[in-house]
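Course exercise 7: structure representation. Students receive a sequence record and must write out the corresponding structure in token form. The form below is the worked example handed out in class, using alpha-1,2-Mannosidase (343 residues). Read each field label carefully; the graders check that inputs and outputs are placed in the correct fields and that the protein name is recorded exactly as given.

STUDENT ID: A-19
EXERCISE PROTEIN: alpha-1,2-Mannosidase
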Amino acid sequence: MVHNVVSSLSGSQVFKLKAVQLAEKLLPAFNTPTGIPWAMVNLKSGVGRNWGWASGGSSILAEFGTLHMEFVHLTYLTGNPAYYQKVMHIRKLLAKMDRPNGLYPNYLNPRTGRWGQHHTSVGGLGDSFYEYLLKAWLMSDRTDTEARKTYDDAIEAIERHLIRKSNAGLTFIGEWKNGHLERKMGHLTCFAGGMFALGADGSPDDKAGHYLQLGAEIAHTCHESYDRTVLKLGPEAFKFDSGLEAVAVRQNEKYYILRPEAIDKYCRVSGGFSGVKDVYSSNPTYDDVQQSFFLAETLKYLYLLFSSDELLPLESWVFNTEAHPLPVLRLGNMTLPGSEARR
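STUDENT ANSWER:
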């Protein structure tokens, strides 16, 4: 829904005002029988709906599960408990539900409260749900232990059922579909290397070293998916079967659309930067699109990589899924409006 709800960097009240106005327009999306929001809402009428292709009109895990940081921050800024309560209701509902193999399917019907198709992915449709469990804990100054426990349990199930090593020793994260593991990893799943590393500190049972190693292995696999192309840009998805490893097979998975990596040589055009349609072609065709996340994420990550750690120290700031920094809320003995006393 919305990821750039407020700027904590400027301190300007106009951004807070606009964030609240936008959030109020989004709240009708939660008016469903379950409280799981629609994917889309008409800002004028307040009428919400879901995509028809999403498992019979289901809501998508990476959408309704990627609101927590922004809405908690809004409650902190405004004192209005409604935002906090909306996202905490989502968490509580998910906690009560049975999960196949401990995994969260990507689709949930907001009318019935039942899972849609049992498809689980740490890439598109699922990715940022897991990211926000970890970051909710970090943003709370590590007091939201419920979020941390939910993250740890989810990661344990992912490691058991989705993470495998290829014949050549590459660690990858597959997708659970129709009762079996598909040995394909999406480009979007590559964020998980960083997530495992970020979550290593605070892992249960002294597993910090294990998760740092796992994060490094995932990052290495993603590097291989880049290195095995002609342009040295990663494909949208890559397989690990039939003798092929970390390589895209289908034509519709060979494109690259400016996700956050090195791109100057092949993607710069006269008007900015463009995605390319086939990273295995030495003479690639442009898709003539500069994605919005290119500015929000790609350039920001590159800038921060070459900046000092003190510019945005990670003990004071947490990046949301579109790379907007939100401050760690050091509430001490305070409680957020609408929340129970912190344990």
